[in-house]
Amino acid sequence: MVNGIIMYLKLFYFCTMAIEKEAQQLSSVCEEKVFRDVFDEHSQTIRNFIFYKCGDMQQAEDITQDAFVKLWEHCKKVVFGKAKSFVMKIAQNIFFNQAKHEKIVLSYAKQAKTQMFGYSPEFIMEEKEFMEKLTRCIGALPVRQREVFLLSRKDKKTYKEIAEIVGVSQKAVEHRMHLALLELRKKIGIKI
Asked: pTM for this structure?
C-alpha cells in the first residue's frame, strides 16, 4: 500500500511538473518574470554564439542586448517555448546585417582612397582651373549658341530635340552648335 501511495505521489508530481512546464511554454514572454527567466536562461548562450562568429565580446554583448530588446518589442507574438529560437535568429540577423554594412563601408573607403590618391594634386588643381575657365567661356557665348551647346552637351539632347525645344530648324541648331564649338576652341585652345 505504501508503495502504491509513493508511486501515486511520484506520478502526481511528474504530471504537475509537466503541466507547469507546458503552461510555462505557452505563457507569454510579456510577463516580466517569464522574460527575465528567458533572459537568464539563454543570454549567455546567445552571447557566446555571436562571440564565436565575430570575435568581439563587446559587439556580441551589444547584439545580444539588441536581440532581447526585439524580443520584448514582439513579446505578444512569441511564446516561452519559441523564445530562444526567436532571440537566436534575431541576434544572428543583426550580426549578419552589421557584417554586411561593414563590408560596404570598407568597400567605399577603399574606393575613396583609390580615387583620392589616383591623381596628383597638380592634376586635380589643373582640372579645377580648366572647369572654371570652361564655365566662364560657356557663359560668355552668345545666348543662342550657349542654349544649344548646354542642351546638347549637358542635357544630352539630340539636334532634333533641341530644334523642337528652341523652335528653330535642325539646320539652325547644327549651325549654332558649330559656331559655339569654334568659339570655345578658340578661347580654350582644345577640342571639346
From this structure: 0.46
